Amino acid sequence: MGEARSNIPALNHPHVFPLELRKKFNLPSIFYVDLYPVTQSAVFVLDPDVGAEVTADPTMWKHPAFTDHLAPLTGPVNLLLSDGPQWKKQRAMFNPGFSPQHIMSQLPVIIDVAEEFVRALERRADANKVFRLEEEATKISIDVIGRIVLDHDFRSFTTTNEFFDAMRKALSWMPDTQSFNPFHRKNPIRPFAFRHYKRRMDNYIGNVLDERFKVRDANLPKKARKKSSIDLALEAYFKESGQDIDSQIATMDPEFRQSAIDNMLILLFAGHDTTASTICYCYHMLAQHPDHAARLRKELDDVFGAGINAAEKLRQDPYLINKCEYMAAIIKETLRLWSPGSTIRQGRKDYFLKDPDTGEMLPTEGLMVWPVLQSMHRDPHYWGPDAHLFNPSRFLPENIDKITPNAFRPFEKGPRICIGQEVANVELKVVLALTVREFDIRAAYDELDALANDGSLWAAWRGSKSGLQEYYGDPMYQVLMFSAKPREGMPARITRRGSTKA
Ligand code: HEM
User: Fold this and answer.
1) What are the protein's UniProt keywords (predicted)?
2) Which of 45, 47, 160, 349 could join 365 via S-S bond, C-beta 3.0 to 4.6 A?
3) What is the CATH number of the domain that holds 212?
């Protein structure tokens, strides 16, 4: 184990570790690892098809390690953590608000928020100081989810938002699951800290829900009612509780209220940092590969017009965004190399994995079953000898058939595939369309010390500065904090290119 860890940083997200083990010891695509005393032992699945079978099976429930990690912040009963009929009911309730057509109809809202992001980047460029890009990217992701999922404006760019503050502080209390330090793992203060911040988040979201309950679209015909998650949850509640949605004396029972709050929290948590992290890695990849950045800028000029700001063009014709094929390939290749999400399922006595080479039935009882998507994404068995290289052409239409089936799965596969993937994809495309011709953004890890006391979540977090600090030569390795985030929130430098008009 130690040997395989030697070429990855101590705080690197563990999802790269199975690939290192496989390479070091020439292991098959499914293997067992004893992880005691850090956590429960696991079977790592690096075979794409077997991984897809695991996630396709609705009876393969989430592993308690996953639930225990997140439930203190988001409650145990919500779309991400529930299983069985409870999950099915919630998924059916929220699906309409995440359909591709609905998300495309929300494009003007996403553009509005992205323009706030552009203004924030302009301020950063004018200040000419190193800053943490992940902080700004988190604001756009939270505001997009707020606007299109909760129909609520968090105004993260222009105000100090109570929810945003509580959420970032709560994240800074996330346990480091790789730590061997018993005090860290059983830190007695953590449950109190989580409870405090959860209460603050609950109060905020509870108020948003109560407001919505008062002014629900009761009098509108069904088709005209909003499809934000908060409205869909209320609509389902009225139906189930047998109350008339038009009634002035309708009441909300406390159990429903808490589960609605927890679902809103999970949508915010699961959606914001995955997308924010991907925004950071897109810029990082473009800065490291000027040839691909130039090709993307040329594509944007071709689609939106040279020297023309993309926002207005997109408002007139939202479907222009789908003409940017190279941009879509860049986003996919970034997600391949730097996936932020993952899933871990619970092994069972009656559940076996079929070894793809030997046909042997492999037991899973008492184990974490982890289809390790990030390890699959960089495994040369599926991506060839240049698996660690950034090469967006892999995802161009002419090459797409060459990709090993099921080997690319940043949003996972099966019935529990990410419900927010369309939100994330559209947001990422709009962000890149509005910024890559306007700015040069690069990571500035050489200036990290200047940010040591910037009051951010990262300054409070225990970042490691000793030992190896690069993953395959890259100082921006991923760390585990809810999802996989760029180390130290991507210290960055930004300059204006001034190549389009506002
Ligand atoms: C680049 C961005 C994103 C990535 C890579 C990503 C990745 C994932 C992955 C891998 C899962 C499967 C987790 C599991 O099975 O345990 C998942 C589930 C989920 N994601 Fe995302 N996600 C992203 C953005 C979003 C957004 C924007 C939202 C909401 C607005 C969201 C909400 C959810 C929810 C609620 C689930 C649970 C779905 C279910 O179990 O039915 N995600 N995501």
Assistant:
1) Heme, Iron, Metal-binding, Monooxygenase, Oxidoreductase
2) 349
3) 1.10.630.10
